[in-house]
Design brief:
The protein folds into two domains: 53 residues, Arc Repressor Mutant, subunit A (Orthogonal Bundle); 155 residues, Regulatory factor, effector binding domain (Multidrug-efflux Transporter 1 Regulator Bmrr, Chain A, Alpha-Beta Barrel), CATH 3.20.80. The chain has nine helices and nine strands. Strands 1, 2, 3, 4, 5, 6, 7, 8 and 9 form a nine-stranded antiparallel sheet that branches. α1 crosses α3 and α3 crosses α9.
Length: 297
């Protein structure tokens, strides 16, 4: 079963690569690609990068530049601009910069008949999974939460508002431990910054009467289930690296299937009384225990 699942991840990424290659003149549509291979958008792009070593955009850009190099040597026209436009660049200058960065020489030299000698370059390689990943079954958790829509850099102000509400709501005894979570349904490489969603939440007893909560706070739930869990130590600004290695590398190698549910961040300690280097955050990614439920179109 797990070997079949690993093969299915590879098949879906290959389908995405073929889709990009067959429509290379158009910029890849991130959500459309994810839908085409029947994966949640916030998971698909991390899996693609984890398995290929390149983002969707980087993959398409490299193929367009390689095609442009072939065009320069075979097309009879002396004008480079049409080739630049075909490669997705709006000016001769932008194309020249990108081409020279990729191949170590300007396109004009290739057009003039000079041999294109590629300098040794690092080939994209799949990412490595985290050093340690736990698979654990978690019970459902009820959170008092507030939602932020916009850049993640603005999230601290949301936590300030939530803590202000928490101080007046008195939903737990004063000496009770406070467990804080973030629910993250979007990937910032797919979703525009002004549309990113993030729910800040503090765990409260199950069965709390919703009428005891006033807007803009709400009750939300982290669902019960099986989760893959990896631990990050240090600044929240580097959390994306663990997301990428866990979702993009560990899941396809493990043979577990990604559930489309949002990812969960458990903040084991608080930045209010912990040095940035000592912050500990667990990332929880839910596992779909029934295997792949949807086949690519």
């Amino acid at each position: 079963m797990r070997e079949t699942t690993r093969q299915e991840y590879a098949r879906r990424i290959l389908l995405a690569q073929h889709a990009i290659e067959q429509d290379l003149d158009q910029p890849p549509a991130p959500r459309a690609l994810a839908k085409q291979v029947a994966m949640a958008p916030h998971h698909f792009h991390r899996v693609f990068r984890g398995q290929t070593g390149e983002s969707v955009m980087q993959y398409a850009r490299r193929l367009r530049l390689e095609r442009a190099a072939r065009r320069l040597r075979t097309l009879s026209t002396s004008d480079i601009l049409p080739i630049a436009l075909e490669a997705g660049y709006q000016s001769h200058e932008a194309f020249t910069r990108a081409f020279a960065a990729a191949f170590g020489m300007p396109p004009s030299k290739v057009k003039a008949g000079e041999a294109l000698v590629l300098e040794p370059r690092e080939c994209p390689v799949p990412l490595a999974p985290p050093d340690e990943v736990r698979v654990e079954r978690k019970e459902a958790r009820t959170l008092l939460s507030m939602r932020h829509v916009g850049p993640y850099e603005e999230v601290p102000s949301l936590w300030g508002a939530l803590h202000g509400y928490w101080a007046t709501a008195k939903l737990l005894p004063e000496d009770a431990p406070i467990r804080q979570y973030g629910i993250v349904p979007d990937d910032p490489t797919v979703t525009d910054g002004d549309k990113l969603r993030y729910d800040a939440g503090i765990e409260v007893p199950a069965g709390l009467d919703p009428s005891a909560v006033e807007a803009p706070a709400a009750l939300t739930e982290i669902p019960a289930g099986l989760y893959a869990i990896a631990t990050h130590r240090g600044s929240y600004a580097q959390l994306h690296e663990l997301y990428l290695s866990l979702i993009g590398a560990w899941f396809p190698q493990s043979g577990h299937v990604l559930d489309p549910a949002p990812t969960v961040e458990w903040y084991v300690n608080s930045p209010h009384d912990t040095a940035e280097a000592d912050l500990v955050t667990e990332i929880w990614v839910r596992i779909e225990e029934r295997g792949f439920l949807t086949s690519p179109a």
